Amino acid sequence: MSTDLDKIKDRIRALAAKTIDNGCTEHEAFAAMEMVGKLLTKYNLCMSDINFSEEVCKARHVDTKRKNRNHMNFVISAIAKFCDCKVWTEKGDTLKFVFFGYETDTIMAEYLCHLINTAIDNELRNFKQSNDTRRGDGRSFAFGMVHRINQRLDEMHWSKSKDMSTATGNSLVLVKIKTVENEFNETNIRLRKTYTSARGVRNHNAYNKGINAGDKVNLSRPVTA
Q1: Ramachandran area for residue 25 (φ above 0: left; ψ -120 to 50: alpha; else beta)
Q2: What counts of helices (H) and strands (E) characterise the chain?
Q3: What distance in Å separates the CA atoms of residue 56 and residue 150, rounded to the nearest whole number?
Q4: Across the beta sheet with 95-101, what order do the strands follow?
Q5: Looking at the whole model, is its pTM more than 0.85?
Q6: Which of 205, 214, 173 is nearest to 71 (CA)?
Q7: Mean pLDDT highest for which of 28-37, 122-131, 183-192?
Q8: What angle separates helix 2-16 from helix 26-42, to the nearest 10 degrees?
Q9: Phi, psi at residue 215, to the nearest 5°?
């Protein structure tokens, strides 16, 4: 009987590994999560019984190549939340973002950092070239773009959490969050909250154009790592 139960646990672990990060489509990943939920219910198990991931949480440093803050500092919290990570900044010769969590999640966070930063730089350059911009217009545009990207990441995080909770009875979500939280606490790092506002917006027309540009950024997870 113990051997049979071990096989069931192995199957659940294998299904839980079928994620978009590991190359599955959204349909395949959600179908796997649905099956995980059914098996947990059938065999009266919870994800803490499975130890679905023995992966150790790690810190991933993303070098901004800059010494000072820019628009990306206003979006890293939303990126970290979407990727189920902790995040903070470190100052040295250059400013670095540090994401802490499961390795696949920190890889995704780094990918989104580069993707979003490149998108904002490109759209901001196009905006300045195609418009008679004044002082503060570029900042207003970037602020609008960041604001919309933050909204989209929050919406995607809520949708992802809802889907996983429905499929696994919330156990998978809670175990993952608890694991990251516990391992982060062992680092003895203390985070400070940062706050942002739209007080830097001088041109609401540029700000609204930035919001429209934020809608065009492809935030989907890549099929392969």
Answers
A1: beta
A2: 8, 3
A3: 28
A4: 58-63, 95-101, 86-91
A5: no
A6: 214
A7: 122-131
A8: 150
A9: -70, -20
